[in-house]
Design a protein that fits this description.
The structure is a single chain. By secondary structure, the protein is mainly α. It contains 16 helices and no strands. It has helices at 2-12, 15-24, 43-52, 58-65, 70-86, 89-101, 109-113, 116-124, 130-135, 141-150, 152-156, 161-169, 176-192, 194-204, 210-216, 222-229. Helix 5 (70-86) packs antiparallel against helix 6, helix 12 (161-169) packs antiparallel against helix 13 (176-192) and helix 13 crosses helix 14. The chain is globular, with a radius of gyration of 19 Å.
Length: 232
């Protein structure tokens, strides 16, 4: 199956789109996506391909995740999500463990954001969430992002405690991509329970990274936003 999938990916490549994606995902020297390579395939096309090959096994998924091409790794994660959803309890444990063992290959923000809530978040919904607290202490930017973005699954179920706790641990994180992710998750909390977000802001707004604060209060009325931004 891997040969057929790779042939389809190669046939769908688009060089002008690849150039746009290379710039968008910051693949230049010293940037967060340094060295990543793009075929130039958009996400909706990859989702369609995922439906076509939805029965791919773990070996095929692993081979795609080993690819230097960004879209191959994204397809691998879409396939992994489908296999996780379609599996029983034992199978889900296998796919979750595989995901957690493969984080070195889940190495850009879109790869994290399109997968972490649907595998890690969903898996830990009824389990101990200590893996998130190990991830949030990782030297890997992407594992720290997995930690906070995985909680999107909990947020959708009006469960905010871990988002708040992890956001507090990321207040001093040096990475802008973590500030954005943290602010995004806090904003999602606020959509469902604004008093929870406001309680967090009452404790931390004056010391939060500016980017995280801006993302968190994005939906607030303008006057209220300005008060927070002024430190009032």
């Amino acid at each position: 199956m891997i040969t057929a999938i790779l042939a389809r990916l190669e046939s769908l490549a688009d060089e002008p789109t690849a150039g746009i994606l290379q710039r968008f995902f910051k693949t230049g020297p010293g940037e967060y996506g340094e060295g990543d390579r793009f075929r130039g395939i958009r996400v909706p096309v990859l989702r369609k391909l995922c439906r076509e090959f939805r029965h791919a096994g773990i070996e095929t998924i692993s081979a795609l995740l080993d690819s230097p091409w960004h879209e191959d790794r994204l397809l691998a994660l879409l396939l992994l999500i489908e296999r996780y959803r379609a599996s029983g309890e034992e199978g889900r444990e296998v796919f979750y463990d595989f995901y957690c063992a493969s984080t070195a290959r889940i190495n850009n923000w879109d790869l994290v954001d399109l997968s972490a809530p649907y595998i890690v978040g969903r898996h830990l919904e009824t389990r101990r969430r200590s893996p998130l607290y190990r991830f949030v202490q990782s030297p890997s930017l992407w594992e720290r992002r997995i930690a906070i973005v995985s909680t999107f699954h909990f947020i959708r179920n009006n469960d905010f405690a871990d988002t708040i706790a992890l956001a507090e641990r990321l207040l001093a994180d040096p990475e802008s991509l973590l500030h954005k992710a943290t602010g995004w998750m806090l904003r999602e909390v606020g959509k469902r329970d604004q008093p929870v977000l406001e309680a967090f802001l009452a404790r931390h707004a004056t010391v939060m990274p500016r980017t995280a604060l801006r993302y968190a209060i994005e939906r607030f009325p303008e006057e209220q936003r300005q008060e927070y931004l002024k430190g009032g």
